[in-house]
Amino acid sequence: MTRLEQVYRQEAARITAALAARIGDVGLAADAVQDAFLEAIEHWRDGEVPPNYGGWLATTARRKAIDRLRRARAGQEKLALLAATMTGEDGNEGGHEGNGVGADSVDDELLGMIFACCHPALPRESQIALTLRAVCGLTTAEIAAAFLAAEPAMTQRLLRARKALRAAHADLRVPDPDELAGRLAEVLAVIYLVFNEGYLASAGRQPARRDLAAQAVTLTRLLHRLMPREPEVLGLLALLLLHESRAATRFDGWGRLVRLADQDRARWNRTLITEATRLLDRALALRAPGPYQVQAAIAALHAEAPGYEQTDWVQIRLLYDRLQALTPSPVVLLNRAVATRYVVGPEAALAEIKPLASELDGYRLFHALRAGLLARLGREDEAAAARERALALAGNPAERELLARQLSL
C-alpha cells in the first residue's frame, strides 16, 4: 500500500464527515473528497505527502465542493452554509495537525454521518453501500466487488441512495436521545456487516480488509460512548473485540486461511478478550438480552476454551437455540448444527441441516459444513461433491484456497 493510499484510509472518512456536517449532503461531500484525492495524486509527486496532509485535503475538498455547488442551480443554500463555517487559515482546516478541532467533534461528525447513511428511507443494501462509500472510504469499484455487482450498477445505486437522503431531508447530526432507539438497530446491523466484510472479504483479491474491521470497531466504540448503558451496543462491541482477538492467527505466513480449530490459541489477544468479557458482563447485567449479546456469549465460550474440541458445545448449542428464538434464520440453525456435531454426533448434525438445503443451496458454508460431516461419516464421494459446490460459491481467495486444499487431500 502506497503512502497516499494509507492517507486515504486514515483521512477520507473524517474529512467527508466534517464536510457533510457543514453542507448537509453526504453524496456531495464524498464526491468532493474523492476529487481532492485525485488532485493529490497530481500534486504529491513521487509519494511526497505534505506534513499537514489533513489540512491540505480538507481545504481542497471544501474548494471542490464549492465548485460543484456553484455549478448546481440548487446549491446556493448549501454554499451559504459552507461559507458560514469556513475558517480563516486554509492550511490548518480539517486535518489532525494544528487544526484546533477536537476528537469529540470529529467523532460526532462520523457518528452523524453513519446515522444518516442508515436512514430508514434507504433499503438495507443501499445503507451498507453508502456507509462503505462515505464512512469507510471504499471506492465504487471496491463496493461493487463486495456486492458482486457491476460498477455502473453500483454507481446508480449510490446515486439513488443520495437522492433518497436529500428527499428525506436526512439530518447529518447524531439523532436526539428520544430518536436513537428507533434508528439503532439499522446502525448496528450495518456496522456488523461492514466488520464482516473487513474480517473476510466477500470478493476481490484481498482475503481480509483490516482497515474496514478496525473502522467498524471504532464506530462501535463511538456508539458505546454515546450510549454507555445500551445492552446491544455493549454486546456488539464485545462481539467485535472477541473476533478481533483472533485476527493475528486467522492467516498463516503464506496468507492461507486457518480454521478456528487449527488456530494457535496462545497467540490470541488476551487483553481484548478480557475487555470484551467485561463489556458482555455489563450487558447481561442489564437483563435486556439481544442477538449481539448472544453471539458475543458464543464467541466468549470459544475464547475461554483450551482447545476446539474442549469447547463447551452444550452451552453453545443452547445459545444458538436462544439466538434462533430472537432472530430466526437458517444460518443460525446451520451454526447450531456445528455444535450438534460435537454434542450428539455428525449423523445428527447432518439430519439437522438437511431441511435447510433449499434455503441455503447458494450459501457456500452450508456445503462446506455438509462436506465435513459427510467426510466424518466416511461418505467421501458425497463429501467431495459438496466441497466442489462450496468452492464454486466461494468468492474470497483465501477461502477458495482452503476448500481447494481440502479437495486435494
Mean pLDDT: 82
What fraction, in percent, of the residue positions are helical? 55-70%
Number of helix segments? Answer: 19
Radius of gyration: 23 Å
What features would you describe in this structure?
With 409 residues, this protein is mainly α. It contains 19 helices and no strands. It has helices at residues 3-23, 26-43, 53-71, 76-84, 103-117, 124-135, 140-146, 151-167, 177-199, 210-226, 231-244, 270-285, 291-304, 313-326, 330-343, 346-353, 364-376, 380-393, 397-408. Helix 11 (231-244) runs parallel beside helix 13 (291-304). The longest helix has 23 residues, at 177-199. The protein is globular. The model is unreliable at 75-103 (pLDDT under 50).
Which helices and strands, and how do they pair?
Layout: H1 3-23, H2 26-43, H3 53-71, H4 76-84, H5 103-117, H6 124-135, H7 140-146, H8 151-167, H9 177-199, H10 210-226, H11 231-244, H12 270-285, H13 291-304, H14 313-326, H15 330-343, H16 346-353, H17 364-376, H18 380-393, H19 397-408
Helix pairs in contact: 1-2, 1-3, 1-5, 2-3, 3-4, 5-6, 6-8, 6-9, 7-8, 9-10, 9-11, 10-11, 11-12, 11-13, 12-13, 13-14, 14-15, 15-16, 16-17, 17-18, 18-19
